[in-house]
Amino acid sequence: MKKTIVISLGGSMIIPKEGFDLQFLKSFKKTILSLINKYRFIIVCGGGQTARSYQKIARDLGELHSEDLDWIGIHATRLNGHLMRTIFRKYAHPAVVKYPLIKQDWKKPLMFAAGWKPGCSTDYDAVLLAQKYGADTVINMSNVDYVYNKDPRIFKDAKKLEKINWDDFQKIVGKKWIPGANLPFDPIASILAKKYKMKVLFVKGDNVKEVKKAIEGKKIKGTVIE
């Protein structure tokens, strides 16, 4: 039985602010396909700029309930999930998973998933899927290289963290979900990951060598939460 690898693929990697990153998508596809003889992959897709653009215009046009904003984000993740499944069509489970609690009859080497319900992000879905399919680690691919003790875009003295436990991480991100929040890992997913005693590895998504190391269980240049 091949080992199952769960990747929470940040939407910022699929579609950053500048538009689709064709070079990243090509290198990601090449990396994953080079490893499908050794591993099975569950890849959970975030909403990224697609979600934030739709959420912003909705906010600009009127007051919205947080659940409405969440549903916009969820549908953006599903669109991104269908894009990624299409890119890997020959090797992928035929449907994008929207309900992580329902176990799939999964025969292909890849399975793509997207947002489930309001109140959490696709990070939460990734933790649920990891638990359901027997994986003890989630690899979080985003546009940052490390988790920091505070936002490095605002604070020049922010310190990168190579290793941190769940209690200390929770002090950084809090315990409340905010639709469209740009956090390293969903606070609600963090609570669940701690409950399941799960490890999360943060790697910069466009650093293909580090992504491959994370998949292969080697020491990474990034942050480990456990």
Keywords:
globular, 7-stranded mixed sheet, 226 residues, alpha/beta
Commentary on this structure:
α6 (166-173) runs antiparallel to α7 (187-195). Helix content is 38%, strand content 17%. It contains eight helices and nine strands. The chain has a seven-stranded mixed β-sheet, with helices on both faces. A two-stranded antiparallel ribbon has the order 5-6. The protein has one domain: Acetylglutamate kinase-like (Carbamate kinase, 3-Layer(aba) Sandwich). The two termini are 25 Å apart. The longest helix has 22 residues, at 66-87. The model has no long low-confidence stretch (mean pLDDT 92). The protein is an alpha/beta fold and 226 residues long.
- β-strand percent reads 15-25%
Element order, helices and strands? EHHEHHEHEEEEHHEHE
Here the CATH topology equals Carbamate kinase
Oligomer: single chain
Please tell me the overall pLDDT.
Answer: 92
Percent of residues in helices: 25-40%
Question: What's the tally of helices?
Answer: 8
What is the assigned CATH homologous superfamily? Answer: Acetylglutamate kinase-like
Given the C-alpha coordinates, what overall shape results?
globular
CATH architecture: 3-Layer(aba) Sandwich
Tell me the distance between the termini: 25 Å
State the low-pLDDT regions, or none: none
Compute the CA-based radius of gyration. Answer: 16 Å
- Domain tally: 1
Task: State the CATH class.
Answer: Alpha Beta
The computed structural class is: alpha/beta
Main beta-sheet strand count, sense and barrel state: 7 strands, mixed
Quick synopsis:
The protein is of the alpha/beta class. The chain is built from eight helices and nine strands. It has helices at 11-14, 22-33, 48-60, 66-87, 122-132, 166-173, 187-195, 208-215, and strands at 3-9, 39-45, 110-113, 137-142, 147-148, 160-161, 163-164, 199-204, 223-225.
